[in-house]
Amino acid sequence: MDFWTTPYGFLKAAAANSATVASQKIGSKNYTVVTFIGQNKAKVNGYINDQNMVEKVETWIDNPVTGDTLLEAVYTGYKDFGGLKFPTKMVRKQGDYPILDRTFTDVKPNAPANIQPPPAGGGQPPATTSRQLGDGVYLILSGYASIAVDFKDYIVVLEGGNSEANASAIIAEAKRLIPNKPIKYLFNTHSHFDHSSGLRRFMAEGTTIITHEQNKRYFEKVAGLPHTLNPDILAKSPKKPSIEGMTDKKVLTDGNHVVELYRLKDSTHNDGLLVAYLPREKVLLQGDGWNPPNEADAAPGPLNNAIYNKNLMDNIQRLKLNIETVVPVHYPPNNRPVTMAEFTRAVEKLAN
């Protein structure tokens, strides 16, 4: 799709995909609109101006959060580069939000390129595993980490996965570990797509989503967005979402288990970033405050950020949390145990 939304990529794709042609006036400008159907069954429209230049390409893609999402690229400032007409300005938008704004100063046609296809097997979560963190408390690993807690009459799940498939795996494992109980609450650390792409699956389950209050209206809107290109379970069986907003602190308890939810103050990663703390088990679940490397005490990986690490540590100290086990949502691929002692050493290394 990235190739098809470039001017020459669009023209080649249109020629190969039985395109149709129509005329359309937008404002005071007349366009020839060339349309074909993409591999995801969505229209791909190219707007050709009166200079016979491709001025805009638009199509729709599926997004697990925003559903049928407009993707468009606008090209302006065409110049001649050694006999090749090419735009000097490109603006790409996704969901009407700019995601790329690029100016071209030079163009070389037919330059050599070595572009490799992505490895096969993407899109499906890894095999789901789980282990006990305490009595009635289970760590679930299926790509991203979650925790299931066995409350008296229901299940609480902390973090909901990065896709519908991932969320379904978490739900299945939670119900296997804690049978004959509904999942009443799903705790969401923050609104970034990789931490909210499983929420619609939990909404379809009838689960109440607990998130920071600034996300409440957003997630309610997300629940109603059309998903026609790739209908998910919520689209096939719509339900009114139950979203519960919190501010700086919320406590879930049944008189036995206790889960404390806190907002990380002064986080520059996300203003509504939340963590979950289990005081009896001395376990902290957090997303993006610290992403440990594959091997304990190895050099920090590319997903790490010293500012986020320090902010997490500052909040732990401010809240006086007694932690032994850290559960990062971005869990190490080898599923090894992660400790507070390791996090402390990592922060100390970054500070020196």
Record keyword descriptors for this entry.
Metallo-beta-lactamase, Chain A; 2 domains; seven-stranded mixed beta sheet; alpha+beta; elongated; seven-stranded antiparallel beta sheet; 352 residues
- Tally of individual helices: 8
Which fold does the CATH topology of the largest domain refer to? Metallo-beta-lactamase, Chain A
| Low-pLDDT regions | none
Mean of residue pLDDT? Answer: 94
Q: What does this 3D model show about the protein?
A:
- There is one protein chain.
- Strands 1-2-3-4-5-6-7 form a 7-stranded antiparallel β-sheet, covered by helices on one side.
- It has 2 domains: 7-103, no CATH class; 129-351, Metallo-beta-lactamase, Chain A, CATH 3.60.15.10.
- 37% of the residues are buried.
- The chain has helices spanning 7-16, 164-177, 193-196, 199-204, 216-223, 233-236, 306-319, 340-351, and strands at residues 20-26, 29-37, 43-48, 54-63, 67-81, 84-94, 97-103, 129-134, 137-142, 144-150, 155-158, 183-187, 208-212, 242-246, 249-253, 258-263, 274-278, 283-286, 325-328.
- By secondary structure, it is an alpha+beta fold.
- The mean pLDDT is 94.
- The chain starts with 6 loop residues before the first helix and ends with a helix.
- The radius of gyration is 24 Å and the shape is elongated.
